[in-house]
Design goal:
Layout lengths: L11 E7 L5 H9 L17 E7 L3 E7 L7 H15 L4 E7 L6 H12 L4 E6 L14 E3 L8 H11 L19 E5 L13 H12 L3 E5 L4 H8 L5 E4 L4 H7 L5 E4 H8 L3 H7 L11 E5 L11 H14 L4 E5 L11 E6 L7 H13 L4 E3 H8 L3 H4 L4 H14 L1
Amino acid sequence: MSLNETPSSERVHIGLFGRRNAGKSSLMNAITGQSLAVVSDVPGTTTDPVRKSIELLPIGPVLLIDTPGMDDVGELGAKRVEKARQVLRQTDVAVLVVDARAGKSGEDDELLELFESGGVPRVTVYSKCDLLESRRPAGRDEMFVSAVTGENMEALKEHIARLTRSESEKLRIVGDLLNPSDFVVLVVPIDKAAPKGRLILPQQQTIRDVLEADAAAIVVKEFELRDTLRSLGKRPRMVITDSQVFAKVSADTPPDVDLTSFSILMARYKGVLDEAVRGVIALEKISDGDKILISEGCTHHRQCDDIGTVKLPRWIRQHTGKKPIFEFTSGGSFPDDLFPYKLIIHCGACMLNEREMKHRQREAVSRGVPITNFGVLIAHMQGILERSVSVFPHLSAELSELAEREG
């Protein structure tokens, strides 16, 4: 991904689903105007999800995902079907592709039920309609298309656009908390873990959101914060920090200035902050031998003092005085069986879209496993969680209730 490219997590995820040889790959090629997916009359040509980031008018930046056939057979076929189901967890708009000559099958009806139960907006596309001698009228959320002749391709794109959320419905990172002419101080440590020559994605996105709110962003390192605040001559609207330096930044930020972290803001942006705050209390009930899952949404080169695999386990042992067992996942990997875990700690999920992150949280909650977030956990262990979420009044009240309930 280039520095100016929209990250995949910020793109509308459009998944193409259906049986083998239904025309999914041909449809993807027709939508993009490129020969991205191999097309063949042999069923099962698509063996792994094929992803393509494009600008799709009138939607904007999207991620198209062509999936293996849901009727694949054999041991390998079952793995391909599971890959397709994993894609569904990320899908913002589902396109069910049906061979118009064969009509809908049991697998297609099962997919429609999955879309319905998951609350995924969908459209059923009857492909290869140029091969039909006659056709019935299209029903609601149905469309006949041809990748060969281009029939209804533009209408399909417009229909998909209508199924996506409007700009006014989209969540904000921090911009909705700001007024024009406000300024925000962002604390960005530059250490061994910092990417060479650039800021990490949550920092980039937060700066962009501040600017879109017509506010100003001032970026400093942690040891520059105190002097910067003294020299500004104006009280900042808030200070936003990397979670790893939460304690120092809290000490250097005046009590009357709101303080939070990039990770906490990302949890809010992904729609999972409230549950992350509720889940963090489980840390105080951890015992020796309990399993804790630490999950990250990206894969990256591990540094010697990596936050997820080194620092968090060390801090948790120090805070609790216990010796839990830590397990780790990264990227698209997330366990199906969550029952062994007493607590799940997730990163800010900047590389996962909102639907995927909500799916992970929903799976944890449905199994009774508390789930929290890196930033929330660190703030809790530093004793500054209430201050760190004070910009969200409903959470401050909930924290007080949780504290009373826990004793």
